Each structure stands twice: as C-alpha cells, then as structure tokens.
Batch of 2 targets.
Target 1
Amino acid sequence: MTKKKPLVIVTRRLPDVIETRMRELFDAELNVSDQPMSQADLVQAVQKADVLVPTVTDRIDASVLAQAGESLRLIANFGNGVDNVDVQSALARGITVTNTPGVLTDDTADMTMALIMAVARRITEGAKVISDELWHGWSPTWMLGHRITGKRLGIVGMGRIGYAVARRAQAFGLQVHYHNRRRVPAAMEEAVDATYWDSLDQMLARMDIVSVNCPHTPATYHLLSARRLKLLKPDAILVNTARGEIIDETALIRMLEANELGGAGLDVFEHEPAISPRLLKLARANKVVVLPHMGSATIEGRIDMGEKVIINIKTFMDGHRPPDRVLPSML
Ligand code: 8YV
C-alpha cells in the first residue's frame, strides 16, 4: 500500500526545479499565477493543508491560525525572517515552524555592500544621468561621492548576515564596529578586527555608516527610533537590508528631507510593498537609494532556500526534527 503524500500548499511561485521536486515528493498545490494570497485564501489553505509554505508576502497571523484545520502540522517558511508568521500562536497550537537560514547570507551581505557603495559613490544617480542622456562629459568636480576606505561601519545585529557584512567591509578597508544582544566570540571579533559596543546609542553616534542586519522581532521593532536616528552623525549613511519595521521610517524620512543625514540605502520598507510617496520623492531627488526587497534575489539562493524547505518538510514527515525549526528562544 502506498502511503498518502502530505498536502503541501505553496503560496507563491518558486524556482521550477523546486516546484518539480515538490510535486514528486508531495501532493503539492502550487500557485502558478504567483498572485499573492489574500487572508481569505490563506484561511482556506490552512484549513486543508498538512504543510503550508508561505513567504514574506503572506501574513500568517493568529486569526489565520485560529482557523487552521487539524491536519496542519508544519509551516515551512520560504525565507529566513519569520516575522510574517505568528510563531507563538503556531507553536501553542502544536504547529512546527521552520525557516531557511544560512543560504541567503552571502547574497544579502553582498546587497548590503552594494547599497553602501550606491549611496556613498552615487552609483544609481550616475547610471540615471547616462540613461536620461544628460551626460556632457567628465569634470573634476562633478558627481563626487565619499570614500569608503577608512570609514567606520556600525553593524546592528551580528548574526550570520551581519558577520558576512563585516568580512566584506574589512576587505573594503572599513573599520568594523557592532552592536548585538550577545558579544560574539573573541576569535570572530579578531578575524574582522571588530569593536563591540554594548550600548547601541554610543555606537550610532560615532559611525560613518550604519547597517541594519538584525531580525525583526517585537524587541527590534523601531529599534532605530526617532530618538536614536537623531544620534547619527549628520553625514552618516544608513543602510537596511533586514526589515523595514526596525527603523522608524517616518522619522528617517523627516531627517532625509531636512538634510540631517548623509543618505540612506533601503532594500526593505515599513509597509511593504507600499512605499511612502515622500520616500519616492527623496529617491527621485537622489537622497535615498531604494530597492525592491532584492537582498536574497539570486537564482542560486532561491533554489537553496527551496531545497531547505523540502528538507524541512521531508524530515518532518519522516518523523524527525526538521533541521531549521524556529524555537521560542529565537524570537
Ligand atoms: C526573502 C528575506 O526574499 O528570507 C528573508 O528573511 O527577507 C528575503 O530575502 C523572503 O523572506 C522570502 O520569503
């Protein structure tokens, strides 16, 4: 007798190889249209699925989970951050939650460096001059940005991604500083010549560039509050490839509009996918570089993420602990 395959509902399109493998292994319901699911669609999905595979665009909140069917045992998130899932509610209902750590570290760190460079060296602004056919030739005093080498970079959150940023930053000749809940082992600090600050306030006030690399949890919501943003040096650059909610975006916009900050590079937004019209205006005025949440957007990374999702589901269904369980201590 063949064992019934678990019903796995995938909320968005995933790379072909991943979807194909999921169809081989599971009774996989795919979203061929790639239309983000409404809350009502999500409720329907959790009522019948054994496993749900959501992404950052799905809000799996307490109300959705309250309507989940008995069969829903696993939420295998396609993504590292799990702020789209009410993990506490899921765990309280006996639903296991997994994520995809480790495989998007380098890609996200690369994008962090790209944003630092884009802001400091005015890369997107320069590219636009060419595409708008506004370039009239080289000049010694035109399009001057700021040198990266020798500047101080403050990393907020020294997890996997923060550390990958530190390694890259060191190669760029930046002096690495960081703030983290826990100080990292001395050998890791030494490897990137990093200076630890237990006070975030103290670090922010001294940095030339600040990069946000911590997860979004209740404890990090508006960690960079209006008060903390005001501590930044007036010519500092702020980069965020983590989650928009970590920065008080309205306060940041106000400061950029008032020229109280050197610039900002944002890959994530507080009310994604909506972007504040004021932020768009600042982008058009080249006071901020904005990207559409592309940090982990490489085909290799997305396939690796999918592989992790499959391994988590397969291990769980085989009766073992999936490797990437999200535990309450991580929240
Ligand atoms: C993903 C991310 O694209 O994994 C994360 O936490 O922020 C992104 O890089 C997204 O979450 C996929 O669901």
Note: The first strand starts at residue 7 and ends at 10.
Target 2
Amino acid sequence: MRISVFGCGYLGAVHAACMTRLGHEVVGVDVVADQVASLNRGAAPFFEPGLPELLSEGLATGRLTFTTDAAEAAGCDVHFVCVGTPQKAGENAADLRYVHAAIDDLLPLLRAGDVVVGKSTVPVGTAEALAERLDEGASGAELIWNPEFLREGFAVKDTLHPDRFVYGARSNEQGERAKRRLDEVYAVALGEGTPKIEADLATAQLVKVAANSFLATKISFINAMAELCEATGADVTLLADAIGHDARIGRRFLNAGVGFGGGCLPKDIRAFMARAGELGVDQALTFLREVDSINMRRRVRMVDLAREECGGSIVGRRIALLGAAFKPDSDDVRDSPALSVAAQMQLQGAHVVVTDPQAIDNARKKWPDLAFADTVEEAVKAAELVVVLTEWPEYVGLDPRQLAERVDAKRVIDGRNCLDPTAWRDAGWTYRALGRP
Ligand code: UGA
C-alpha cells in the first residue's frame, strides 16, 4: 500500500521505517528540514537501537522517502498522523497545534476512500473533532484512531510486533471500510495472532492515556512504598519482588528509584487530568496529582540523600552523576529525572559532572551550564560522591574495585536500585539507595 506518515519524530520515523519493512511504499513528512535530510541519509536524528539499520534497508529499496513537502503525500491510501502533542507552556493541557496542522496539510490531498489514522496521544474528544473536519472538507476520507504503545529503546520491536492493536472508528460503513484497510496495513502482525480490539473513537483515545496513567501509577506506587521503607528500614526491592510474584500485580514497572520522566508519562497524566477537568470529572483523576507528586518527591529525596552522604552539605562537593537520559537505550532527556537532579545539585552549590553513553549532546543543549564528561572514568575523577541516575548496562556492570581507585571518597548512591549492594560494599564503598536500608 502507499502510506504517508506525518511527523517523523520518535514515533513517526520508526513507524515509517517499519511500514517499509512490512512491504509498503512510504513517504514521511516533517516540517524540520534537518531531520528530513538526516532521515534521507539513513541517519536517525535520535538514538534508537535498530532504527539506523531499518532506515538504510528501507531507503535502499526505494520505497521509503522523507520530505518537507506535504504534497508528496498525495496519492497515498493511508495517512498516519504521528506528530507530537507536547504539554502547553504554563498549563497541564496538551498542545494540539501540530495535529491540526497535519490535518490542514492533508485536507487538500485526500480522496474518497482514503484513511487518516491518528496515532498521536491526544485528549479524548480530539478524534471526533478531527473526523468532523474531514467531513466538512468533504474529502470522503475516514478517520481511525489507532494509538501507539511503543517504548523508546524498543520502538522497532514494539512497532513490528506490538502486543495489541486498538482501532477506534465510527460505527458506519466508512468506519468499517477504514478498519479493513488498516487490517491490510498490519496484515503481517495480525497474521502472527496479535490481539486486536475494535472500539469507538472515544475508547481508543482513552486506552492510550489510561495505559500510560496505569504505568505511572504503578511506578509511583512502588516509590511511595520506598518512602515507607525508608521510614522503617525495610527494603523496597525485596518488597517489589515479593508482591510481584502475585500474577495479578506483576513485577514489571515496579522498580523504585528516582522516578519516571520522558516525553510521555509526565505530560500524558497531566493532560489527562486537564481533560477530565474540562469534562467535569476531575475527581476521577485527582489520584494522578498524587502520582505526579510522589514522582517529583523522589528527585528532591535524591538531593537530600546526597546531602546526608556528604555530611550535611553539598556546597563545593564534587559529585559524579552517571546518566542523563530519562531511561537507558535512549538519548532522550525530556523531563529526565537524572538531569533534574543534576541541575538541583548544581544550583545548591555542588560541583557536578554528568556523563551518559548517548545523551550528553541533548543534555548539554538543555542545561549548558552543567559540566559533562565523555566517560565514567573522567566523570568520577576525584569525586566525593558517585550517583547512578540512569541504569545503563555499562553502569550496572561497573567494577566497584576499579572505580574506587579514581574517586576521592568511596560513596555511591544508587538512584535506580540497579547495582549489587554487596559487591560495592565489599569493595569498600558506602552504598545508599532509595527505599533500601
Ligand atoms: C511510555 C510507555 O511505556 C509506552 O507504552 C508508551 O507508548 C510511551 O510512553 C508513549 O506514550 O509514547 P517510554 O516513555 O518510552 O514509554 O518509557 P517507559 O519505558 O515507560 O519509562 C518511563 C519512565 O519510567 C522512565 O523514566 C523509566 O526510568 C521510569 N520507570 C520505568 C521507573 O522509574 N520504574 C519502572 O519500574 C519502570
């Protein structure tokens, strides 16, 4: 099939490359010329394992192109809307300007029978408004809402082999036809038996924010338990293992630490609360305010713990921070807990040196005043405290004995509960972690 993808960021670039792998002919459209040029060279504008290979493969087939000219999407049968929906400045609500701009671009190109597929995360009610815009434009095209659940770092796998498909459509003949078109697009994964849930537009939009809210709640739940553990001398990692054995609870997303960040979970729960307020059901989601607060408290606790470890003050102390990305296998620093802690420590007078295997360039753009080192060895030189804030495998696998030779004081704080406390203590380190004795 001929497919267009509007918006070639984390979601769209991966989606475009994956759709080519599935045998489709794909044109990716984005307004950022540098990003388009980079994608056309086969260079991913962000770090995502497997994406460069998939881009090169797609470009070599001649079935994948990227452009800034929306008109090149004319003649496509299916148009995916994958643009960003960031948090509005100074508000909790989502900024929908890019979604509407994509529809503006699409309207003159659409033909009867074409399908517009919304994948961006939007406040419920947006899809209905967009469907009306298509009707008013008399395009004859039909809108389907098909939320995306990919995780950064696993985006290629999650797109090619998703754990489920959700289609939201109007219950009429066009809606039905549009769903069958989407079946053709996803024929390979559907053939593998991937579950599919067909729903109305509202449910499909809600599924996405409900899923992210549940994940955020799970993380904040275990971080709240970490606060209890800190007050009682209990160990949150053992607690998570123990409750996680109950299949109804499950162990995944129960890793306590410095909390969640990134371009999705924080802004999605806030936009969800804002939308609930508009709908007059704000009480239904007041718990998400607490989820957000627990999450933010972990960052403050991290700085407090550093202060305790440094004997009451971090002023003038040299602190090495391992990790800047919001999670491993990503160079994304949007709302990164690691950088938020780094900035706080620096503002409170510490001499902070940050390192990360992939995210230093992005981190430097966001916080140019922070000091950065390319390697762990450089970052920890003469450090009086080492803090692990992103659980990159290379940090999890560090040899505490080797590292001990480079630091001034053998103090480590494990902000992700990812190190082996026994190995570090045996090597002479004072080991502290969030939620552990
Ligand atoms: C999240 C969802 O997991 C995806 O399903 C969704 O498609 C995506 O948002 C989106 O809306 O586009 P992502 O932002 O890539 O994916 O990151 P996650 O893997 O969910 O991690 C989010 C944050 O939670 C990270 O900062 C991570 O370190 C933290 N986290 C995760 C914890 O603190 N503890 C855990 O147990 C798990």
Note: The first strand starts at residue 2 and ends at 6.
